Every structure is written in C-alpha cells, then in structure tokens.
Amino acid sequence: MRSLAIVPVSGATSSARSLAGTIERLQMAQDSYHVPVLASEIVELFTSLPAGVVVDATLGGGGHADAILRAAPQIRLLGIDRDPEARQAAQERLGEFGDRVRIVDATFGELSDVMVLHQDFLHSEPVVGVLMDLGVSSHQLDESSRGFSFRVDAPLDMRMDPTKGETAAQLLSHIDRHDLARLLRDNGENRFAGSIAKIIIERQPQTTHELTEAVERAVPMAARRRGHVATRVFQALRIAVNAEEEQLERGLDAALDVLSPGGVLAVISYHSGEDRVVKSVLHEAATGGCHCPVELGCVCGAVPTVTVFKASAQLASASEIESNPRARSARLRIARKLPS
Questions:
Q1: Model pTM score
Q2: CA 255 to CA 253: how far, in whole Å?
C-alpha cells in the first residue's frame, strides 16, 4: 500500500466547530445499522488525539468510526469485526474515506495478531487510541435469522460470525447441566439457574421460542423480575457461544500493549459481567498489580502502566437515553497509557 499523507489538524476554533457539527449530525442521523452509543463522548475523546492510528476493535456498522474520521482528519482507522454483515455495512459507510480505513475480519481477542499482519497499514505510526463497544448490536438483535433475540422465532444460533463455530443449540446438546447452571449464575440468573438448566437440557430447544418456553416453564410467574424472563439466559448463551469473556480479557491486554504512550483506551460495556472484567483489567494496569495494604503504601515495586480517567463509569445522558434506549445500560471506562 502506498504511503499516506496525514491531514494536519486545523486551528482550535475550526476544530471545535467541526466537533460540534459532527455531534449534531450524529444526533440527527438515522443510522441504518444501529445508533452508536455515547457518540458525543467518543468523538470528543478521539478528536483530541495526535496524528496516528485508531483501532476500532468492534467496528459494527461503522457508526463510531464514521464520526471519528469526520471529526479527526489526523486519524486513520483500523476496524475489526467478526460479523460479515457488519463488515459489509461498514465498508459501504466508510468507503468515502478511502485509504484512511482498513477493515479486518477478526475478533478483538486477536488484536495482537491483527497488528502484526497489518504493519503495512500502520506505516510505523503510533496507535493513539483503541475503542471497544461490546455486546450485541441493535442490527444483530433485529436480524431474526441470527437467533439473538427472544422477540422473533428463529434457529437458536447466536454466533457473531455465522460461518464459524458451534451454535447455541449445538452447545446445549453437550453441555453438562451443572455447567449450564453455573453459566447462568455467572450472568445474574441466580435463584432459578438450576431449574432453568434442568428443563433446557431436557427439552433441547432448537429455536428461540423453544428456549423462551423452557425458561418460562422453569420460572414461576410470581417470581419473575422486571423485564423479560429469558433476557439473562439469552445473554449467558450468547457470551458462551462467542467466548466473549475470554475474548474481552485478551483484547484488553492486547489493546494496552499496542497503545503508544499517551494513547487512550475507551471501552463501552452493557452488563455487569463485561463491566466487571473491564474495571478489573484497568485497575490492575493502573496499580501495576500492587496488592500491598493501603495503610503501608506500595512496597512491592509495582509500576502502573495506565491512568484511569475516573473511578466510576461514565453514563449516557438522559436526552441520549430518551432518543436511544439502548444507551441506558451503557458504561464507558477510559484509560490513558503512561510512558514506559
């Protein structure tokens, strides 16, 4: 690939106008794939970065990527996604940016390998930012054939990449009942995890409606929480099918490794399990792994590798939640890499 010239950043006033215009367009636009969550916050964060490469490790339909590229002309973007439909949508959306963008078929857990294989795109420029927008997209939920949602009957698939790996139905054909119950508990289904697992294993559901019926049979009406009774079961199976927790831990470690000093990592999570992993990894990096008693101070010589922007996660505004209900559960955590 030929060498690319980096467009210089304009003056402060011009940059502010550009940022405001980009955010306004995002708020007004109807995204045919899905509406990017916390877009204003992400655009503002990545616009402030120096010239270099940003890795969008969960590219999706390209909503965040489009916003970043428009507002930050000094940035080139390497987009990663395992979903072929998402990559196609992003290719169409980001085509106008030409050689400023490269889209890769991979998972964020494979980030280290991606960086090695695509050195020609990096041009020895620093990786100044990494973005991860976790979970399942609105498009994937709405696409009935994917089996992510209990709202439409479909084959029980749940694979992010429908060409690879085993489906949720195949997983349920061999998983031990006690392992399934443990998986459900790990994802917040505490009280009825055992009975749900027992009935699912007995019934061997092949469709989303069959899985929903099995969960409804296991949970008494009087004990059902706010929201759909099968929500956490679907979430737990999706996470297991796509090995999301293992991918997340590997991806976070790789992101912190590839970032240049001063680079930022931004992670948007949507449920407590994801956020717990993100918070734990960032805490470990921010303390250097120190576990010395607080009252004694650090005596182990641990060396922090990042600073975390704030202890608590950043939440979406009330106005964004009103216009995009998916933002209600979003949690944004940000860290900046320290000089080595």
A1: 0.84
A2: 5
